[in-house]
Amino acid sequence: MGQHLASVGAEKGATTGRDRRCGWFDAASVAFAMRINSVSGICLTKLDVLDGLESVKVCTGYKGIGENTSSSLVDVDLFKNLEPIYEELPGWSESTSGAKSLDDLPPNARNYIKYIEDTVGVPVDIVSTGPDREDTIILHHPFSP
Questions:
Q1: What are the start-end ranges of the E strands in the chain?
Q2: Class of domain 23-54+91-138
Q3: Residues of the chain with pLDDT under 70
Q4: Torsion angle, alpha carbons of 20, 26, 32, 37, to 10
Q5: Can you give the residue ranges of every domain in the chain?
Q6: Most buried among 52, 53, 98, 111, by the most CB within 10 A?
Q7: Does the model's pTM come out above 0.85?
Q8: What is the b/e burial string over 49-71, where b = at least 16 CB atoms within 10 angstroms of the residue's CB?
């Protein structure tokens, strides 16, 4: 799946041109980052890369030596031995490209965004649905009160 996401999303290193490693959204790591950095919202980019997939997955935690843990994310030696725990959500066949508002998105894409918000504990402020600057939905402006 990582190669599919990298190919559809045109994920290449800016300097080296090497393929980037891609995978499912890691809500466990993002939720951990939200807690330790006091972040008030996130931007969800490249939603359009998931268009046409029958289902999408979200990493909700990690399984180590018999336990579900997220506190181990800062220990590289321990982290490399953990296995992701995925929640599988219904995908969407409709295109998200060119959407200008949340209402323009397919219902399952909106459900995916809501699931991410609920899982990471902060709102999604901005969603991008394509490579162009105009392919952006601003849900909450990050610089307004």
A1: 25-26, 42-44, 55-63, 68-69, 83-90, 124-128, 136-138
A2: alpha beta
A3: 1-22, 65-76
A4: 50
A5: 23-54+91-138
A6: 53
A7: no
A8: bbbebeebbbbbbbeeeeeebbe
